[in-house]
Amino acid sequence: MADIAASMLENSLRAFKTQDVELAKATAARDDEVDKLFYAVWVELIDMMAKDTSLVSRATYLLFLVR
């Protein structure tokens, strides 16, 4: 997820600098991909916390990190 976000940032800056509308659109389209990955991680962490409350503190930190 971080690699995709970093790539999106690079492409956004490149699209802005070169005024490349197609690159900007392609970059924006990848946002849904990152959202899906975030949601999958979020669901997994919530499920883990529900099953084992000793993980709540550590999993909460991870939730903040992935956002």
**What sort of overall outline do the alpha carbons produce when their principal axes are compared?**
elongated
Q: Averaged pLDDT, please?
A: 93
The count of domains is: 1
Structural category is mainly alpha
Helix content: over 70%
Largest sheet: none
Identify low-pLDDT runs. none
What's the total helix number?
4
Write the layout of secondary structure elements.
Layout: H1 2-18, H2 21-29, H3 31-51, H4 56-66
Helix pairs in contact: 1-2, 3-4
Structural descriptors:
single chain; 67 residues; mainly alpha; elongated
Descriptive notes:
There is one protein chain. The protein has 67 residues and is mostly helical. The chain has one domain (2-66). It contains 4 helices and no strands. The chain has helices spanning 2-18, 21-29, 31-51, 56-66. Helix 1 runs antiparallel to helix 2 and helix 3 (31-51) runs antiparallel to helix 4 (56-66). The protein is elongated and about 50 Å long.
